[in-house]
């Protein structure tokens, strides 16, 4: 059973930064594309950024220029550096593949106060 364990969320003021981590217990980590999703209260879960096994990235317009995804294949971990946070970034953040979803982790709450 593959496990996705997200961490690093918290409460931050607008304009602040957070770094999220997602540890993946999967031996084939390095060959998988991964992404960060978020779900705000009352809204559907959305994919905000993805990264291929080769390091190519794709960002949603809402986070482009503020968020940076990276991965460490040796540590089987994917990161999300979030800068210039806005109240509308408030959500539970999850990692998963952009396709052929794995079982969801518990997510990590990010709250941005104005």
Describe this protein with a few key phrases.
mainly beta, 6-stranded mixed β-sheet, 4-stranded antiparallel β-sheet, 114 residues, globular, 0% helix, 10 strands
Q: What is the typical, i.e. mean, pLDDT?
A: 94
Q: Sketch the major β-sheet.
A: 6 strands, mixed
Number of strands: 10
Shape, per Cα inertia axes: globular
| Euclidean distance between termini CA atoms | 40 Å
**What's the helix-strand series?**
EEEEEEEEEE
Give me the secondary-structure category: mainly beta
Number of helical stretches of at least 4 residues? 0
Radius of gyration: 13 Å
Strand order of the largest sheet: 2-10-9-4-5-6
**Residue ranges: pLDDT <50 for 5 or more in a row?**
none
Q: What fraction of residues sit in β-strands?
A: over 45%
Helix content: under 10%
What does this structure look like?
The protein has strands spanning 4-7, 10-13, 18-24, 34-39, 46-51, 57-59, 67-72, 77-82, 91-96, 108-113. It has no helices and ten strands. The termini are far apart. With 114 residues, it is mainly β. A six-stranded mixed sheet has the order 2-10-9-4-5-6, with no helix packed on it. Strands 1-3-8-7 form a four-stranded antiparallel sheet, with no helix packed on it. The chain is globular, with a radius of gyration of 13 Å. The model has no long low-confidence stretch (mean pLDDT 94).
Q: How do you describe this structure in short?
A:
The chain is mainly β. It is built from no helices and 10 strands. A hairpin with a 6-residue loop joins β4 and β5 (46-51).
């Amino acid at each position: 059973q593959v496990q996705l364990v997200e961490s690093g969320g918290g409460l931050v003021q607008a304009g602040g930064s957070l770094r999220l981590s997602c540890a993946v217990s999967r031996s084939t980590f390095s060959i998988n594309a991964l992404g960060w999703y978020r779900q705000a209260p009352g809204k559907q879960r959305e994919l905000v950024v993805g990264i291929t096994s080769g390091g190519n990235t794709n960002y949603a317009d809402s986070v482009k220029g503020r968020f940076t995804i990276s991965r460490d294949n040796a540590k089987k971990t994917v990161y999300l550096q979030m800068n210039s946070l806005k109240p509308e970034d408030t959500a539970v953040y999850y990692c998963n593949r952009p396709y052929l979803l794995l079982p969801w982790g518990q997510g990590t709450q990010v709250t941005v106060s104005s």
